[in-house]
Amino acid sequence: MTARPSAQVLVVDDDVYIRETMADVLRDEGYAVQTACHGVAALEWLASCTPALILLDVNMPVMNGMAFRRIQLADARLASIPTVIVSAIDRLGEYTRELAADRVLAKPVGLDELLAVVEQLTRRRG
Amino acid sequence: MMAEALDLEAAVRILVLEDSDDDVELLALHLRASGPPSELHRVDTLVGFEQALRREPWDVILADYNLGRFTALDALTILKASSLDIPFIIVSGSVGEESAARAMRAGAHDFFLKDHLARLWAAIERERREAEIRRERRHALAERELLMSDLRLALEARDEFLAIASHELKTPLTPLMLEVSAACDLSRRLAAANPKDVGLKRLGVRVEKALGHIGRVTGLVNSLLDVTRITGGRLAIKRSDAELGEIVRGVVGQAQELIVRAGASVEMRSPEPVHGRWDRSALETAIGHLVSNAIKFGRGLPVEITVESRDGRAWVSVADNGIGIPEGALARIFERFERAVPMEHYGGFGLGLWIARQIVEAHHGRVEVTSTLGAGAKFTIVLPLDANREPS
Question: I want to staple B70 with a disulfide (CB 3.0 to 4.6 A). Which of B12, B74, B79, B383 is the partner?
Answer without folding.
Answer: B74
